[in-house]
Every structure is written in C-alpha cells, then in structure tokens.
C-alpha cells in the first residue's frame, strides 16, 4: 500500500513539475519513474477514479485533476492568519526591537488582528481589533495599494473623499506598488511611524499587511533601509506560509 502511494505521488509530482508542460504521455511517465507502462496505467486508472488525474480525450495524455484545486482551496480557507504569521512576527520583533502588527481588510477599513509588542520601554501601544480607514497609515495603505482599481474607487466613494485627496492617494499608491512597501509618519498618531509590506495569498491576491511600528525618533534615515528590507522579507515569508505560490 505504501509503495503504491509513493508511486502515485511521484506521478503527481511529475505532472505538476513543469508549468510549460501541462500534459504527459504514459510512456513519458514510465521513463520518468522507471516503472513499467502497465504499472503506470494501473496507477493512473486509480488516480482518475478519484478525480486526482484526468485524461485529455483527444491526445490521450494525462494531467492533474480538478480535485486538487478543491483540496487546495479548502486548505487555504482553513489557514489561520494569526497562527501562521505569529512566529514570523515574533522573530521580526526580536530582530528590530519594535512593535509588529498584522492587519487585514474589513470593508473600507483595516483591522489589526495580531500584535507582537516591542521589548523596549518606549513603544507604540495598539489594541487588537482597532479599525482604521484603509486610506490612513502604512499598514492599511500597503493593503489598499494592491487592491483592484474598481475596489479602491468603491472605498474612496464610501469614504466620500474629495477629488484632491483621491489624486494624492493615487500618487502614493503608484509609489507603493512600485516599491513594494508603504511608509507613514504621524498620519494617525503624532510622533509615530510605520513601514509596512503586503501579504499575498493564492493568485497574488493581497490578504493582509505586516508592519514595523515605532516612535518617529527611532525611524532614522540610516535605519530605515534595514527596516524596509526586514518587513518585506517577513511579508514574503508569511505569504509563502499561507498559500502564495512561487
């Protein structure tokens, strides 16, 4: 039984190994696995019965079945952002010694769903569940900037933003999407600063943002490049952990 499972999974790995080759012939699979054609045929028949492999009726070649998509989407839905992100946030907080937030979109607002506090005595204090308009602050703008344009326009309309403010935000969004991170200083609370990067999921959909938050006096020009590098790397780690594909 274990040998059959190992062989079946080897076939699946081959079928998904090359994004430019979606279908494989039975002889090709036999060559790749060093198994007899009859063995490959038997394994493929079983995989097809369970929806894990499908055959092109025209070419008779094989490819992965749609059941994998169903399984993958269910796994993605079951992932707890906070559980997945927490260890990475803790490492980041220890590394930069500042407070780390995880934000997600909640309609036209951003909401803080996880916090790792800075070990320093002077630090930014935030409360879990805090809701702030997506147009304010680096953590929220890192999400806003990677939404679809029509969704951003809906948010602007809901917040009844004047034309001048919309144009200002669009310029900021262009800079953020180009750089891959957002920076803010004193937008919500005077004397505070933040640098944030987006967290992506399946199909490069923005799902959240992770941010480094500190008193403005610790956001020096000399230190900022390092903070940007660290937060972008943490965001990438979380993205891969919750389902973003390479």
TrEMBL record:
Q: Which GO terms describe its molecular function?
A: DNA binding; DNA-binding transcription factor activity
State the Pfam families in the record: HTH_IclR, IclR_C
- Protein origin, superkingdom: Bacteria
Could you tell me the Gene Ontology terms of the biological process aspect for this record? Answer: negative regulation of DNA-templated transcription
Q: Where is the IclR-ED domain?
A: 67-244
Gene3D superfamilies linked to this entry: 3.30.450.40, Winged helix-like DNA-binding domain superfamily/Winged helix DNA-binding domain
Keyword annotations from UniProtKB, A to Z: DNA-binding, Transcription, Transcription regulation
Where does the HTH iclR-type domain start and stop, copy by copy?
2-66
Parts of the chain that traverse the membrane: none
Give the matching InterPro entries: ArsR-like_HTH (IPR011991), GAF-like_dom_sf (IPR029016), HTH_MetabolicPath_Reg (IPR050707), Tscrpt_reg_IclR_C (IPR014757), Tscrpt_reg_IclR_N (IPR005471), WH-like_DNA-bd_sf (IPR036388), WH_DNA-bd_sf (IPR036390)
By its UniProt entry, which PANTHER family does this protein fall under? HELIX-TURN-HELIX TRANSCRIPTIONAL REGULATOR, ICLR FAMILY, HTH-TYPE TRANSCRIPTIONAL REPRESSOR ALLR
- Annotated protein name in UniProt: IclR family transcriptional regulator
Classification from the root reads: Bacteria, Bacillati, Bacillota, Bacilli, Bacillales
């Amino acid at each position: 039984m274990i040998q059959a499972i190992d062989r079946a999974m080897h076939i699946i790995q081959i079928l998904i190994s090359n994004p430019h080759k979606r279908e494989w012939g039975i002889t090709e699979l036999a060559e790749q696995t060093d198994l007899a054609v009859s063995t490959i045929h038997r394994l493929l028949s079983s995989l097809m019965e369970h929806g894990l492999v499908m055959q092109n009726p025209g070419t008779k070649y094989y490819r992965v079945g749609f059941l994998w998509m169903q399984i993958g989407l269910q796994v993605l839905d079951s992932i707890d952002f906070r559980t997945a992100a927490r260890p990475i946030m803790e490492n980041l907080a220890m590394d930069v010694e500042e407070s780390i937030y995880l934000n997600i979109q909640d309609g036209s607002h951003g909401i803080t769903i996880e916090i790792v506090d800075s070990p320093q005595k002077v630090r930014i204090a935030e409360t879990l569940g805090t809701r702030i308009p997506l147009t304010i602050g680096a953590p929220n703008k890192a999400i806003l900037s990677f939404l679809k344009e029509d969704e951003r326009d809906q948010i602007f309309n809901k917040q009844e933003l004047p034309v001048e403010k919309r144009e200002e935000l669009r310029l900021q969004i262009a800079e953020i999407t180009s750089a891959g991170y957002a920076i803010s200083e004193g937008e919500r609370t005077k004397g505070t600063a933040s640098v944030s990067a987006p967290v992506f999921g399946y199909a490069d959909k923005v799902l959240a943002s992770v941010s480094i938050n500190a008193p403005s006096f610790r956001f020096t020009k000399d230190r900022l490049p390092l903070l940007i590098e660290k937060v972008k790397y943490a965001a990438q780690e979380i993205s891969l952990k919750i389902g973003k594909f390479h």
